[in-house]
Amino acid sequence: MSRTTVDRIVLAGFVVLAVLLYISTASYPGIAQKTSAKYVRFLSVCLGGLGAVQLGLSLWKERRGVPLALTEHVGRFIGLIAGLIAFAVAFNTLGFFIPAAVFIPVISVMLGQRSPIVIAGTTLGLLVAVYLIFVVVLGIRLPGPHF
Amino acid sequence: MEYLSEVFTLPAILTIILGTFAGVVVGGMPGLTATMAVGLLVPFTYTMDPTLGLMLLGGIYCGAMYGGSIPAILLNTPGTPAAVATAIEGYPMARRGEGSVALKTSVIASFMGGTFSVAVLLMFAPLLARQALEFGPAETFLLALMGLAGIVSIVDENTSLLKALLSGFLGMIIAVVGTDNMSGGLRYTFGLTDLIDGINFMPALIGLFSMLQMLELAGQREHAPIDTSAINGSQKRAKLPKGLGKYMALGSGTGTVIGILPGEGATIAAFISYNFAKQISKTKHMFGKGNPEGVAAAEAGNNGCVGGSLVPTLTLGIPGNSVAAALMGAFIIHGMIPGPELFTVHADRTYPFILSMFVANFTFLIIGLAFAPYLARIALIPPSVMVPIVSAFAVLGCYALNQSVFDIYLMIAFATFGLLLKKLGYSLEGLILGLILGPIAENGFSQGMIIGKGSPTIFFHSEIAKVMWVIIIALLVPPLLSIARKWRANLRAAQ
């Protein structure tokens, strides 16, 4: 999809968001009608208005679209996001150290690192550094495994 | 004097040295910024002694601002955006064998700029904070507007005026999520208990300024090889050229003043100082070919921004730039709300923090003079090592603040959505500024409307309010005029 098209979709999304936001202020209770509701209406008018103007300008200019490249290497990009989500999911039960001991080498290999010494050194170095600095020196309680 | 003695204790000195060294290392790594480092470490200071925690972050801020110049000079790879102007002059110097002169100029100029700006912070912040006592809700609202006016100055060749403003309003709308302070009702939480207290700005900050950079690095197809030839020969001792003092003084003053203006960052400070130096230089023809005057002005300028940016942050709660915003988060999580109380109730923490920044400047001066050529190799650390480490820290930092996995998801969402907005030309600085200033603006607006019995004239009533409107207009007019001039020039070119 071209950059211009994505931009227009995002701008249209802002306008829709602004309209929904404006409408939603009608349900604000009591005193909020005179205070917060007015503030939110002001914000939604600004967002919607500016979004509509920018969208109009974009349509008026009719630029030829260049493809939007969010990333040059989709696999690595998605892989890092997936790794982060997996890390977050594992956090509740396994704490920091165990998921980190898996996450760091996996991401390192995914990004092209092939030296086992560098991978092991990075992983161990970070875990030991975090333990020494945060747990031993600073006395911060890091989450541990809950089985 | 008692505050000074708090700085010269062993734990404090070690913390400042650790923070400054970490800052220099982070600043020296292209892709990592001071905002990222400070934002990443704020949650970890939560369980630390507040004074030591703030000293650590202050050291990182000072160190990172200088650290960016080392790879800029030796590898033509600015460690931070603020060091781009330094690279223009520093790298040609290094290429012709004057790397040691450029490094020495850079560290001394950084020291001068940093020290001058912290002195200004120490002298003027308490005075400005006392004025803040006169502020009512209407003035607080105008203060937030003043901060948002800074968004206009963020506009550059990548971000249009409308998109910068849209980013700011989007940030303010995100800040609306959570409990309404006026009615106690829940707004836009969609039944999620994690959103009752609203969207914490720390996961947003870490997502937008740390994780986003890691996603960009991870998604690069190949990494351009870096020319390391200039490192060799930069390790010998060299004398500083004469006549650089006035350029350092010029950069220090310019950087400090620009730092005080909301929204203006170290990059702008460095470029404006660099341009001023170019205008008054007797060797204009040498600019762009390796002129130490340019290095001196640019480095004094970006480090001058450090103390300057903290003046509105500590006194009015209006962050001068994104690093100051992250530092403001550290003050808030330690229960120190920016404003006059920082210099009265919390004076025992605020003054040692400010004084510690003098020590941080002195620390990076020593580090720079002794180890700068060796530190340049930090820039050669491959993304396959840097990305997993920073990502693990980002996850830990987001979780540590509220012991909430939801904050990690928020961070990932902000990083991904932020990357899309960045690619489309929106301003991430504007977004974070809106997110921080949104609640301040809403509280001021709502309370002002109640006091004014629904009439908006309350926002124009007091003398302070009138002065603030003048300042807001003064902040808006020059950038708007400059944008109008650019539009006119573009139209003429199109015809």
So how many helices of chain A? 5
| Largest β-sheet summary of chain B | 2 strands, antiparallel
**Average of the residue pLDDT scores of chain A:** 88
Q: Report the end-to-end length of chain B measured between terminal Cα atoms.
A: 66 Å
Protein chain pair with the most extensive contact, residues per chain: A-B, 69 and 62 residues
Tell me the series of helices and strands of chain B, N- to C-terminal: HHHHHHHHHEEHHHHHHHHHH
How would you sum up the major sheet of chain A? none
Structural class of chain B: mainly alpha
Strand order of the largest sheet of chain B: 1-2
Total number of strands of chain A = 0
How many structural domains does the protein architecture of chain B include?
1
**Quaternary state of the chains:** heterodimer
Helix fraction bin of chain B: 55-70%
**Low-confidence segments of chain A, ≥5 residues, pLDDT <50?**
none
Number of strands of chain B: 2
- Globally, the shape of chain A reads flat
Q: What portion of the residues of chain A fall into strands of 2 or more residues?
A: under 5%
Short summary of the structure?
The complex is a heterodimer of chains A (147) and B (495). With 147 residues, chain A is mostly helical.
What do these coordinates show?
The complex is a heterodimer of chains A (147) and B (495). With 147 residues, chain A is an all-alpha fold. Chain A folds into 2 domains: 3-61; 74-137, no CATH class. Chain A contains 5 helices and no strands. The mean pLDDT of chain A is 88. Chain B has one domain. Chain B is 69% helix and 1% strand. Chain B has helices spanning 2-7, 10-28, 34-41, 50-67, 69-75, 84-95, 99-131, 137-149, 161-174, 201-218, 245-260, 266-280, 292-316, 322-333, 347-375, 383-402, 405-423, 428-451, 463-494, and strands spanning 178-179, 186-187. Chain B has a two-stranded antiparallel sheet with strand order 1-2. The termini of chain B are far apart. At the A-B interface, helix 1, helix 2, helix 3, helix 4 and helix 5 of A face helix 9, helix 10, helix 16, helix 17 and helix 18 of B.
